[in-house]
Write a structure and sequence with these properties.
26% of the residues lie in helices and 43% in strands. The chain is α+β, with helices and mostly antiparallel strands and 159 residues long. The protein has one domain: START domain (Alpha-D-Glucose-1,6-Bisphosphate, Chain A, domain 4, 2-Layer Sandwich), CATH 3.30.530.20. The longest helix is centred in the last third of the chain and has 18 residues.
């Protein structure tokens, strides 16, 4: 893949994951790819499976849900509710991994543009360190980098 890079993952506190990735596309295109259901289906699964559901009600109080058939053998599903939506700038939502319905994270995503490149910053606030560590130890980093490589391709295809 061209223009693929790696997201930088840091752990600012015992309950947070901070992910930063630069895209070679303007922020309005990265935002559009991030928030449009038919485009989410093209990138969210990375190389791990087919996204079968991408539901987005992009407004405060609106719900979202993504489902992927991973490697054709099992479903991976997440859902949440939007708490803040500032088009092309910031999205704040809850995130629940459906097999663990009692653990809710809050995800704050910001889109910042400089010279036609967009920095996507994602802060995941977990309720406790156990939840944060489970997220980190799930193998999420490799899958996330694959998905973001695909997001790069989708965003640039829109330009």
């Amino acid at each position: 893949m061209t223009n693929s890079g790696s997201a930088v993952v840091t752990l600012p506190t015992d309950t947070q994951i901070l992910i930063t990735r630069v895209f070679d596309a303007p922020k309005h295109l990265v935002y559009k790819a991030w928030t449009t259901p038919e485009l989410i289906k093209r990138w969210w699964g990375g190389d791990r499976g087919e996204v079968t559901v991408a539901e987005v009600d992009l407004r405060v109080g609106g719900k979202w849900r993504y489902v992927m058939m991973a490697h054709g053998t099992f479903e991976v599903a997440f859902h949440g509710e939007y708490r803040e939506v500032t088009p092309n700038e910031r999205v704040v939502s809850t995130q629940i991994f459906e097999p663990i319905p009692d653990v809710e994270a809050v995800v704050t995503i910001t889109f910042t543009e400089s010279d036609g490149h967009t920095t996507l910053t994602m802060l995941v606030q977990h309720p406790n360190q156990e939840s944060r560590d489970g997220h980190i130890n799930s193998g999420m980093e490799d899958g996330m980098n694959e998905a973001m490589d695909h997001l790069q391709l989708v965003a640039t295809s829109l330009g």
